[in-house]
Amino acid sequence: MKTCPNCASREMKKQQFHQQEVEQCQDCHGIWLDSGELDSALSIADNGHSQVVLEEALGKMLGESQRHCHDCDIKLIRYYLMPGFEVEIDCCPRCSGVWLDHHELEKVTHSPAIATALLELDKPTKKRTWLFQFLSQMPVEYNLKPKKTPWVMYSLVALNILFFLSYISDVVDISTAFDSFAMHSGEVSHGQQLWTLLTYMYMHGGLIHLAGNMYFLYIIGDNLEDALGHGKFFLYYTLCGLVAAAAQILAEPNSVVPVVGASGAIAGLFGMYLLWFRHASLTLMIIVYQKKVSPLIFFGLWLLTNILGLYLANESGGGVAYWAHIGGFIAGIVIGFAVKKHVFAANPLLAILNSQEVKVKR
């Protein structure tokens, strides 16, 4: 009976791993695959690839392992599974057998999909993206394309545009629109015009205000809707907008300045995106230099800008609802942590992309 390379147990039994007959240790539950069986198993697994060739193109060699091949009785060699996905596996230099620890099995199974994802995520910036950002001062996003059409995100963008056009084109009197549907902290804090806690999210003060908010909703909303599903995406978006409004009211309970814009709700999306899409990249424009950065850096700078804006507003009187931005962002972080386990369970590829083994080029 063969000995387990990991724990020296002799309880190795034949098992099926994606229609390949492999040997599995009954103590540590790791598996041994003979030469060619890993590629065959991954070609059959549900990972979007039917002709996997991984064994001939492993990642960086890391040196000798303390484990021994149970066929050849020589030390195995440690490798990263593939470039950009630093899952360690052990290979025999003589018979080309492969040892996989039990905790590696799911990650290895999804590795062909990870390889495809990294091709998308690691795309370099191009001249046209530089020109777009230089002219618009808006970031460019590098993330996976959603599997489902984000109908709710599209609908939210359309509703915001329609609301804006209704009072800009004088279909609805602009003064009446702002009096009736913008949020006035002083009114709401006294129990009046409570409906404006919802309607303020669909109004904007100008074309640039609208365009900026809709652009951010467009570039990050599709991925979040894909991860959450249509109903929960709309629910959490609305909830973040309500928390944003509450934060602004608590900060300025007697203000008569109308509060409008989807910024607070979108700030909540920032918080969820930050927690679930650490592998994504957003570009910063530093004068003329375009740089891909992680969501942590991008939204960290955004948060610092809002905190600085809040301080300066206290000095000068302001005009931007910074507390709504900060409140919405905190709501998104709280929701993100609360449902992260469920979201990752429903999206295993997303969970693996958030692991430390994935290395994205920026």
The strand line-up of the biggest sheet is 1-2-3-7-6-5-4
Q: What overall geometry do the principal axes of the alpha carbons give? A: elongated
In the CATH hierarchy, the architecture of the largest domain is Up-down Bundle
Number of helices: 14
Sheet-strand content, in percent, reads 15-25%
CATH class of the largest domain, named Mainly Alpha
Helical/strand content category: alpha+beta
The number of domains: 2
Q: Helical residue percent?
A: 40-55%
H and E string: EEEHEEEEHHHEHHEHHHHEHEEHHH
How would you sum up the major sheet? 7 strands, antiparallel
Round the mean pLDDT to the nearest integer and report it: 93
CATH superfamily of the largest domain: Rhomboid-like
Q: Uncertain regions: pLDDT < 50 for 5+ in a row?
A: none
Instruction: State the total count of DSSP E strands.
Output: 12
Distance between the termini: 48 Å
CATH topology tier name of the largest domain: Rhomboid-like fold
